[in-house]
Amino acid sequence: FRLAVVQLQVSSDKANNLSKVRRLVKEAAGQGGKVVLLPECFNSPYGTSFFSKYAEKIPGETTQMLSEVAKENKLHLVGSIPEEDGGKLYNTCAVFGPEGELILKHRKIHLFDIDVPGKIRFQESETLSPGNSLSTFDTFCRVGVGICYDMRFAELAQLYNRKCQLLVYPGAFNMTTGPAHWELLQRAALDNQTYVATASPARDEAASYVAWGHSTVVNGEVIAKAGHEESIIYADILQYLADVRQQIPISSQRRDDLYAVTAVQQGSG
Ligand SMILES: O=C(O)CCC(=O)C(=O)O
Question: Which of 69, 94, 138, 146 has a CA 20 to 30 Å removed from the CA of 100?
């Protein structure tokens, strides 16, 4: 099946963000996209000062639009928004199916709290609460869902890998950690013999948080990669994994007697 990744130029104008999503998802569907990935916080500028203003209930305005667009174009649609629920805010990735149905919500498990002196300090936990479950869904293959910083936690990818062929991470790395780690972390999934797709917002040099861009799809090799401007990239998800997993059978060669990565709770999916 064809995966499309929309690297949206996100602005502070929510209505404009949503109407662009409608247009670009339609374009992706016209190119054969069956699963379409949108960036992290695609309806809002990325930053702790914006989350409460742009946050919505699910269902709400943005997810209603996602549901309609998934149904109109008969595809799976994945992307994160700031969510408000019970007085708390979450960074939540909603997944809609081709009938417009909400398949799952993944709330970012690992909040992005870092402090690199002189470069970047960011504390998502000042405003957001973390999710507490792992999330997978079934389409043409089984898909594991994480959001941005979740990608740094290899244990999550390893757990997903046992049952998934594709991992998706809406993300927004920055001008410090983007060049250092964005592609490397995705390619590290080579260890897991899994496709990995990331969707970033396009770069906006005037934004308070400047996204790195470079949405990417890898299967160990980079098979599709955007620049930093608004664009859609496509990747055909093929038989490759079954072949590689048979040729280099690391999943059956693990030394379970020596080490283990275990989920404490399975969560959804
Ligand atoms: O891990 C990083 O370097 C960036 C993470 C990030 O931007 C996020 O989690 O939103």
Answer: 146
Domain boundaries, given as residue ranges, for the chain: 2-253
For the question of residue 124 being annotated catalytic, the response is: no
Distance CA 138, CA 66 (A): 18
Q: Is the pLDDT of residue 7 over 70?
A: yes
Establish whether 148 is a catalytic residue. Answer: yes
Q: Which of 14, 20, 34, 40 is catalytic?
A: 40
Q: Could you give the CA distance from residue 98 to residue 57 in angstroms, rounded to a whole number?
A: 21
2-253 fold = Nitrilase/N-carbamoyl-D-aminoacid amidohydrolase (3.60.110)
Lining residues, ligand 1, CB within 6 Å: 40, 112, 148-149, 152, 172-174, 177, 181
0.95 surpassed by complex ipTM: yes
Side-by-side strand order, sheet with 102-107: 102-107, 88-96, 76-85, 33-37, 2-7, 231-236
The residue whose CA is least distant from atom 3 of ligand 1 is 177
Q: What is the mean pLDDT of residues 119-125?
A: 92
**Per-residue pLDDT tens digits for 183-220:** 999 998 767 789 999 999 999 999 999 999 999 999 87
